[in-house]
TrEMBL record:
InterPro entries linked: AmpC-like, Beta-lactam-related, Beta-lactam/transpept-like
Listed PANTHER family: BETA-LACTAMASE-RELATED DOMAIN-CONTAINING PROTEIN (PTHR46825:SF9), D-ALANYL-D-ALANINE-CARBOXYPEPTIDASE/ENDOPEPTIDASE AMPH (PTHR46825)
A Pfam family of this chain: Beta-lactamase
Protein name (Swiss-Prot/TrEMBL): CubicO group peptidase, beta-lactamase class C family
Organism annotation: Actinopolyspora righensis
Domain Beta-lactamase-related span(s) in chain numbering: 17-342
Length: 458
């Protein structure tokens, strides 16, 4: 059995320095191995109130919630109440998208693997009640386009996971919040967690932080994103130990949640993901799948308004790692925390994040230059005479402009034959744009950026 006393000491000594270096106001981390937990916390939950972060503090887990939604769906698959390759309309007969007839062939599996093609970033509020998800699927989803045909490729869709949550609601005839409590929270005997903002008020809870006018972090103007997308990760919050309990059930072959065969099915690669350095090489059923020096690692990352979370599970080593932060350079912070812990425990580190070459080759204008549009965003790549490039992204709708009010210009250089990379960092990492289709020397037909797949339009 691993002795975690040295790790606990190391975490308490190291975490404050790592958080400070990455501008993180408050953080909490946890490690599970051999049924033992090591935890540490540092900083403040809210810079306005000065309340210290502790290991039992609640942080939002963002899109890590998608693993919980996937679990609820796979429990129903085990019970024979859902079939993965059945169309969504079998469970939601009125399901439809904006264009007549489009989306009728979308399956449950495609929702789980982000291959439905549904535009995924419609963060439209409905109600704050238990009917929020139902109202979203009935009122908002029918206005959404399908950006790419279902099955054409992986394109991250929050809206698709709202539909998954609604399927579980409809089959169980219970609201999403009750499903979380009854089918995950109660079997795992969770204590420090919240499925609604009202529940979070009863705990020591982190507030997200965003850059202020002078660039320093300040408390975000609101706590959570719309409850209408709760199955995608807009509300759920918990302490590290609770998320480790969830991960531990998977390490235990599903524990009280799932059968071992289902866990292995979920952790099997289903869809390849272009290498942009952040999402792993494949998606399983809900889970991101990574390759760390030949070893399979699974997990998910999440971000809400000023809060973020990273979960990594090392099945062969029997280890789970959780990192929470409430602002700052979250991508770089989480990666450093997870990498240093994994290295210390088992001598394993994730692949290095891509960085711009010191002497980049010229960008091929034939291959990379052009415009790539989704239904709400446009990104145009222009190649300069010196061989560098610039990307200009612009919101095309009023809703998208709420997320990106002004056009954003990103300086780029060539990373390899298929990718361009930003010269500056965003949240501590260099953005990567991956291009595909069309063949060598001809214009790329698709762009994969920030997890979203778009088609060339010019």
């Amino acid at each position: 059995m691993t002795d975690l006393s040295d790790l606990r000491t190391w975490l308490n000594e190291t975490l404050p320095e790592v958080a400070r270096r990455h501008g993180v106001p408050g953080a909490a981390v946890g490690v599970l191995t051999d049924d033992q937990v090591a935890e540490a916390a540092t900083g403040e939950l809210n810079l306005r109130t000065g309340v210290p972060a502790t290991t039992d503090s609640l942080f939002q887990i963002g899109s890590v919630t998608k693993l919980w939604t996937s679990t609820l769906v796979m429990q129903l698959v085990e019970e024979g109440m859902i079939e993965l390759d059945a169309p969504v309309t079998r469970y939601l007969p009125d399901f439809r998208l904006a264009e007549e007839g489009v989306g009728a062939d979308i399956t449950v599996r495609q929702l789980l693997t982000h291959t439905s093609g549904i535009y995924g970033d419609a963060f439209v509020p409905t109600t704050r009640d238990e009917d929020a998800v139902r109202r979203y699927v009935e009122d908002v989803v029918p206005t959404l386009p399908q950006d790419i045909p279902s099955g054409e490729g992986m394109s991250y869709s929050n809206s698709g996971f709202a539909v998954l949550g609604r399927i579980a609601e409809a089959v169980r005839v219970k609201p999403f919040q009750r499903l979380l409590r009854e089918y995950i929270g109660m079997p795992l005997d969770l204590r420090h967690w919240a499925v609604t903002p009202e529940e979070a008020l009863l705990h020591r809870t982190a507030v997200g932080h965003v850059p202020g006018r002078d660039g320093s972090p300040e408390p975000a103007p609101f706590w959570n994103l719309p409850a209408s997308l709760a199955p995608a990760g807009t509300v759920l919050a918990m302490a590290p130990r609770e998320l480790l309990a969830f991960a531990g059930a998977y390490l235990d072959g599903g524990g009280k949640l799932l059968d071992p065969a289902t866990v292995e099915r979920m952790w099997r690669p289903h869809v390849p993901v272009p290498d942009i350095g952040m999402l792993g090489g494949h998606f399983g059923l809900g889970w991101m799948i990574f390759d760390w020096d030949g070893q399979r690692v699974v997990g998910h990352d999440g971000g809400t308004y000023g809060q973020s979370c990273s979960l990594r599970v090392l099945p062969e080593a029997g280890i789970a790692l959780v990192s929470h932060a409430n602002g700052g350079e979250n991508a770089a912070f989480h990666r450093e925390v997870v990498a240093r812990i994994a290295d210390r425990l088992v001598g394993l580190r994730p692949p290095e994040l891509p960085t711009p070459p010191e002497h980049p080759e010229e960008v091929d204008p034939t291959r990379f230059a052009g415009r790539f549009d989704s239904s709400t965003m446009s990104l145009e790549v222009t190649v300069r005479p010196d061989g560098s490039a610039v990307a200009r992204s612009e919101a095309l709708t009023a809703e998208a402009r709420q997320l990106q009010p002004e056009p954003r210009v990103t300086e780029l250089v060539r990373l390899d034959d298929a990718r361009l990379i930003a010269t500056d960092r965003l949240f501590g990492a260099h953005e990567v744009l991956a291009f595909s289709g069309g063949g060598p020397g001809s214009p790329a037909t698709h762009l994969f950026h920030a997890g979203r797949l778009t088609r060339r339009t010019a």
